[in-house]
Amino acid sequence: MRYKRWLRKLKRWLRNAVQAAVYVAFRLKTNLAQQLNMAHAISQERANFLEANFFQFSFEEREPDRTLFDTITSPTELHYMAHIYNWDDGPEVLGWIIDSPYCDRGTSAMIF
């Protein structure tokens, strides 16, 4: 009989502990997501620059400029470029992104 009572208390305690852990994890995740969105945003001006120089350039019969690409030192900007990239423009710029020392694993995984 004591065993069953002890087991019920243990189950109740574990259920409460799990609920508390889930709540804390949710709050931490929400706060972290908000911080990441703030930390990993690019300005509209910079987005316009990337789109003007590395997005759908083949439709305008232009070639991508490697010297302009080499000025990009932000992993967030590389990820943005990979996200908006039109594969009809060919793989050249995507190769530059992957070969960049600023390219992170998430960006590489998105390309492949």
Description:
By secondary structure, the chain is mostly helical. The protein has two domains: 1-39; 44-111, no CATH class. It is built from six helices and no strands. The chain has helices spanning 2-39, 44-54, 66-69, 75-84, 92-99, 105-111. Helix 4 runs parallel beside helix 6. The model has no long low-confidence stretch (mean pLDDT 80). Residues 74-108 form the DUF4274 domain. Keywords: Signal. This is DUF4274 domain-containing protein. Residues 1-20 form the signal peptide.
SSE order and pairing:
Blueprint: H1 2-39, H2 44-54, H3 66-69, H4 75-84, H5 92-99, H6 105-111
Helix pairs in contact: 2-4, 4-6
In short:
This protein is mainly alpha-helical and 112 residues long.
Number of strands: 0
- The count of domains is 2
Give the overall shape, derived from the CA principal axes: rod-shaped
Q: What is the oligomer described by this structure?
A: single chain
Spell out the key features of this protein:
single chain; 112 residues; mainly alpha; 70% helix; rod-shaped
